[in-house]
Sequence to fold (250 residues):
Amino acid sequence: MSASSVRRRFSAASASYDAEAQAQRQIASHLWALAAPYILRGAAILEIGAGTGLLTQHILSAQPGSLTVNDLYTSPQVQALAQQQPDVLFCREGDAETLDFCGPFDAICSASTVQWFADIEDFLHRCARYLPKGGLLAFSSFLPGNLYEVAELTGVGLDYPDAAALQGYLEQDFELVAMEQGEITLDFASPHDVLLHLRHTGVTGIKSVGWNKRKYLEFVDGYTSRYSMGLGVRLTYRPVYVVALSKRLG
Fold:
């Protein structure tokens, strides 16, 4: 998926994102819990894919010396955080796969972003160039089977590398400290509410299905028959959390 398509999707969803991003909020909190012990007060930190600032707020709580936040689109929420701490938080818009972040940084963090990249392995190699030996890389992504309920019914979904592939991408430049796999199940009143959740968070290319009345009704019937849970239906996120230390000079 092109960077411009991702930018349009998330900029359109920024106003509704925080209210709907239950899974992403949990993921940012857990990633931070894993990363925080390796981050010293006064550190220079780069955050990739800041979105509406779910992880940004955790990082700021550690009192970094500087925090450079990147995304294709700087959300109003992150702009507000930058106005509150203009001497600490700096915004850099652009495609993280090609943008020169200068650096160096003591840590690079990213929550629920790298799954969108065209070449995750190359991106991780690039991260190593901005870190000194022992510098921290902490990120979350998703594993195969993420949002499988929607993918099975629509054929729309991302190709996620599995945990073994991610570990292979890292081994040249990083020492793996922690890799955790998780599962977050959200409950919705109806399949229609699932679609609204996906639209309001921008997490999948569901608009590309080419909806019409027949497809919508087939989706609702199929989702209800396969994925009912009590009085509603479920949607499953499968996050993976990675914490690693650079083992080469940046």
Q: What stands out?
A: DSSP finds nine helices and ten strands in the chain. The CA atoms of residues 148 and 236 lie 7 Å apart. The beta strands are 44-48, 66-71, 89-93, 107-110, 136-142, 174-181, 184-188, 228-229, 232-237, 239-246. The chain has a mean pLDDT of 91.
